Structures are given as structure tokens and as C-alpha cells.
User: What shape does this take?
Amino acid sequence: MKAVNIIHISAECYPIAKVGGLADVVGALPKYQKELQASSSVIMPLYNNSFTQTNKFEKIYENYIALGHEYVNIQVLKLIDNKLGFELFCIHIPDLLFKDYVYSNNDTDRFLAFQIATLDWILTLDKKPDIIHIHDHHTGLIPFMLTQSYKYEKLKDIPTVLTIHNAQYQGWFSHEKVSLIPPFNFENVGLLDWGDSINPLAAAIKCSWRVTTVSPSYMEELKLNANGLENLLASESNKCIGILNGIDSKVWNTETDNNLVKNYNISSSKSGKKANKKWLCQKFNLDENKPLFTFIGRLVGEKGSDLFPEIFTKALKENNISILLLGSGDKEVEERLNYIPKENFNFYIGYNEKLAHIIYAGADFLLMPSRVEPCGLNQMYSLKYGTVPIVNTIGGLKDTIIDINSKDGYGILHNGVTIKEVTDAITRATKFYSEKEKFTKNLKTIMKIDNSWNNSAQEYVNLYKTLKQ
Ligand code: GLC
Assistant: This one.
């Protein structure tokens, strides 16, 4: 059978630009799809960051797009000397996109211009994609424009797939800006609307051929709680499906990961983890003989971070443990971390990919008390690196972790995000750590779990094949 030709369109893609898990998925899924005879490429904005400064691009297209009454110069750059495992195209719009950040508080024009430029360029291609796969609200107006804007008439039969990585953010903007969208039959303006504003995520749910979420449980949860989109998702449920994310086991490999202080495999895991833990404990002034609990991620309400100061203080008082946090976000939480006694606790404010890898390798436990977790990748990285995840029973966490007290269990689950639930889970984990033999055996069990993209990439390809005429 002829290979399916897919274009992924996204605001983030690892290793080019990463804010969260969206980047990891868009940077990995195309590689795995390629192995399944599906040729995938990625289109994203060109940001001004270290990847784009240190890699060579070739200009393959240049034009002007109309953004309301303005004409904006756009270029399409293709990455040369490409080692990513898929083709990468970046949309260069100097004044709007080429910044040293991915997101700001004023992104409507930026991502609208990105989407229009992308479609204008696709319109010129001799070989059109078989499938357009968009990710989150930043690319959410594409299915609407494809089916409704007169200028894209020639593309209207290309099937579109929307993946929702996080439904909390929807990209809302005022109807006053509707003229920025290339002209369409105004009778259908309702497709853009949800709750009296233009809602790109809602428009994408209405206009895409298929909608996926990044875990089956999250799909179910969204019907009850989707930041206002519950009814829409329930009414569109026959085109919705949950497909669990995988992890890129080429990047997340303890034997080859050159971020680590010491590499290891399942048989050398004890000494390998010990060396990474020692390095961490020296750097952050912690006792390497105590079980090390960690958190890696954004400090936002969704991740339960507002309770961290209380949880950490109580857990440190009640257990003989240390805690290390890597992340940034809510300034108030960052500030309150300073008041936790520093004896067995430390933190690093910011984003540091290398340090994150060493933490996955050196820690004993990873905390993920998320209130919402569409999939969560950190718990899967943590398993691969032999670190036991402690997670709330929600979304993708529920789909990937089995509690040690259940049959074939290997992680720790808690029900709900309260100070008591999470500290009780930490106490249970500390006890588990003291049962040395059981704990060591579990380490080997979790490292063997295969959460790579192999299965899920196939599920996506199967989905595309049902859409391709
Ligand atoms: C978002 C979600 C996270 C998911 C990731 C990749 O960041 O919050 O749960 O793993 O996207 O799909």
C-alpha cells in the first residue's frame, strides 16, 4: 500500500522549541510513524532560539499573506543537514514569530499568521498531504479555514485530525478580529464561536474529521470537565478517540543518554542510579542515604503545585526523606518554596533538560499530584529510568500506573489532590523504600515496561488509513 503522507502542524517540537509535553510528542511521533511506512513532516514557527541559531535552514518559499488589511512577509525555511528523523519546515514571520519565547499574552495574530502562512504554502505544493494533523488550539483554526475559506477551496478534501494535548487552553479571541481570517461564507461564522468568543479549540473540534486526546481516560474526563467544552465534546463524541502517548525511547534511554552522570541498564541499574543520585545530592546539598523524592514540571494549579509548600513541609516532618524540585511557573509558589526548611529540601527554578534527565536517573520517587493530566510523560520517563512514580488517579496517569497494592502493581496512586492524600502516599512510598528487596526488584520491573511509541504510532496510522480516500 502507498505510504500515507502526513503533515503535523504545531507550535512546539522537541528539540527545536519545547515548553511542555506537546513538544516531546510532536518531536517523536513522526519518527515512529516513518518506521510504519507513513511519511511524516512537521511545520512549526521559526523562533529565535539556540536550535535555530545553530542549525542551517534553506529558504524554499517566500510570499506575503493578508492579515486583515495588512500584508505580512512570510518565508518557509527547511532544515538542512537534518538529523531529526523527519522533515522540518519552519514558518518565518520576522515581526510576529521570530522571538526568544514560544508563547506570550498576546498570541492571536502570531498564531493566526502562522496558520495562514502554512496553508498558503501547502496550497502551492505539487504533492498535497494525505492528512493534516494539528495539535492544540494554536493550530485549531486550520480545519475551519480549510473547509470554509474560499481561498483554500482546493484543500478542502484533505482529512484533518486534531489532537488535544490540553483542553484548558483554548486560544479565545474576540469576534472583532474575525476579519483576520481569510474570507469565508459568513453564514457559517457559528463554527468559530463558543460562549460568545472565537474559540479556536472549539472550532477545531467542530471542523476536524477526527479528534484524539492523549489518553483514553482523559477523553472520558473531558465530557465532564473541559473548561466549558463538555457539551461540545459529548455531542461530537462519535469522532473522538483517546490514544495514549508514548515516549521516545531513542532519547529516553539510560544506556545512551549523554546527559547522565553514569549510564546504566537493567542489570547495572543499582550502581548507575546510585552514581546519579550521589551527584544530585552533592550538588543540592542533600543526604544520599535518604530516599529522594522529586518533582519536575510547571508550577501551575493543574499540577497541584499550590499545595507543594504544605505537602513538602509536612512530608519532611513525618518521614526521613529528601525532596528536590525542578520547575517554574506561579511566582507565589516559587516564593513560598523559600520558606520550607532547607535541611532536606532544595529546588531549582527554571527549565533545564539536562538536569531533568539526571533527576529521573538519580531519584527514587517522582511526584505527580496533578489535578488534570491529559497524558503525562514524566511518569513514563521515570519508569524507564527506574524511578517510582507517585501519581494522582487521573487522566493518563490512571492509564499508565498500577498501584503496588494491586495485582502486578509497580507505582503509587493516590485518590485526589489534598495535603493528606499526597503526604500519605509519600509515607507509603517511604515504607516501600525500606523494604529493600522488594524495592530493588520493582526497579527492574519498571525499567522493563515498554511505553515507547511503537503501539500508539500504529494506532494513529490506522486512524489515518480510515480517513484517506
Ligand atoms: C500536555 C499535557 C500532558 C501531555 C502532553 C503531551 O502538556 O498537559 O499531560 O502529556 O501535553 O501530550
User: Anything to note?
Assistant: The chain has two domains: 4-246+454-468, 269-447. The pocket of alpha-D-glucopyranose is lined by residues 20-22, 25, 165-166, 214, 245, 373-377, 396 (CB under 6 Å). The chain is about 35% helix and 20% strand.
